[in-house]
Amino acid sequence: MLTASPIRRALATALLFAAASPFVAAQTAATAPARSQAAPAAANKATAVFAGGCFWCVESDFDKVPGVLSTTSGYIGGRTQQPTYEQVSRNDTGHAEAVRIEFDPSKVSYKELVDHLWYTIDPTTKDRQFCDVGSSYRTAIFPQNAEQLKAAQESKSEIEKKKPFKALVVTEIVPDQKFWPGEDYHQDYYQKNPVRYNFYRTRCGRDERLKELWRDQAAKR
User: What confidence tens digit (pLDDT) does each residue in 50-62 have?
Assistant: First the structure.
């Protein structure tokens, strides 16, 4: 059975046990930066949902985009109600790891977010992103309405024409899917556990592969 990389599973398991410790939980609460889940009030707010492999990395790649208000790691596109990380990472439920992004459309458009997504993922691999293998690591765009569906299709058509590589783009566009927020210990992982996160991201080869695919257009870490 294809599953998450040993590096990723080890880090996630260690964090799960740490999260269960009252002492560690108290220390984390005292030292962690403000949760990226907690979006400030906005007159205009919209939602985007993307799957781009490891949701720790997707959060990191989108939190820095101007106009993004919050990010939440979770699961989408599967059969099971309220799936857990262990179920999803075993590829038992049909879900993909995904991130729900709340953004201010007066500052950044949905299409601009989709355009940014391409440069943060390897859209040429099916059921895999970098060192993580399995259907839960597939890339996909999950439009929330007809307007987003049209924008996603336009963006994909444009990237297929201008991509600097020959391989086909296999990222799917799948509307009308239920998003389930993930466990608390996965939220803002890159902020709360920067050493572990950077170790994982480097060893997984994410940025190296992005540079190989997208050259100077690759999203900056």
Answer: 999 999 999 999 9
